[in-house]
Structures are given as C-alpha cells and as structure tokens.
C-alpha cells in the first residue's frame, strides 16, 4: 500500500529505491533458502533476536550516545544496573514457549479429530 502511495505521488528516489528493492528481493529469497535448510529453529530465532537487538543497540548509541557524552562506560554501568532484565526475558521466553506449545497441542487435537 505504501509503495503505491509513493509511486502515485511521485516521491520515489529511484537511484536508491531500485537498489533497495533488489536487495530486499535477494535477501528475502536467499534468507528463505538458507533458513529452510536449518533444522534447529531455535538457532534461527536466536539469530534473528540477536541481530535485532544488535541493530537497536547500534542505532540507540548512534542517536542517543552523545547525550551520554559519548561515554561508553557510563552506558554500560546504566545497563548493568538493570539486573531484573535477564529474568524478565527468560520469563517472557518461557511464556512464549508455553503459548506455542498450547497452540501446537490444540492444533494436533483438531487434526486428529478431522
């Protein structure tokens, strides 16, 4: 939908847009092919989460790092004080696993009944 609006309004920067489109298509195709061969889905999910967190940290530092005076040690100390964060994420993942397992069991029951 958004692409249609930008095309209709003539707001597409073609010198960048074509490279972005080609990269998106190639990345989507190759990413699908590579992950289809990986049997350990937990590894794939962990990789996606790690990549997302890494990118978020990079852009957080790039945008807000100057607010800390560029002092990396100060930022590290700030995050070190958040001791409850690992427990929060482990609880969140346990809840997600339980939710997925419940849905999987319900689906298996429905398939068995059919």
Describe this structure in words.
It is a single chain. The chain is mainly alpha-helical. The protein has three domains: 1-37; 39-81; 82-114. 82% of the residues lie in helices and 0% in strands. The protein contains five helices and no strands. The protein has helices at residues 2-9, 14-37, 41-64, 72-80, 85-113. The mean pLDDT is 78.
* Strand segment count: 0
What are the segments in which pLDDT stays under 50 over at least 5 consecutive residues? none
pLDDT averaged over residues? 78
For the termini, the CA-CA separation is: 38 Å
- Rg for CA atoms: 21 Å
Report the principal-axis shape.
flat
Share of helix, binned: over 70%
The number of helical runs is: 5
Please provide the ordered H/E string of secondary-structure elements.
HHHHH
Briefly note the structural class of the backbone.
mainly alpha
Strand content: under 5%
**Total domain count:** 3
- Major sheet: none
């Amino acid at each position: 939908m958004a692409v249609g609006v930008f095309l209709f309004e003539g707001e597409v920067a073609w010198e960048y847009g074509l490279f972005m489109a080609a990269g998106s298509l190639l990345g989507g195709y190759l990413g699908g092919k590579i992950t289809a061969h990986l049997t350990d889905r937990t590894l794939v999910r962990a990789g996606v989460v790690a990549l997302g967190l890494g990118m978020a940290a990079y852009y957080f530092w790039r945008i807000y790092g100057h607010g800390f005076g560029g002092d990396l040690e100060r930022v590290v100390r700030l995050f070190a004080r958040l001791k409850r964060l690992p427990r929060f994420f482990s609880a969140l993942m346990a809840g997600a696993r339980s939710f997925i397992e419940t849905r999987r069991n319900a689906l298996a029951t429905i398939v068995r009944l059919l």
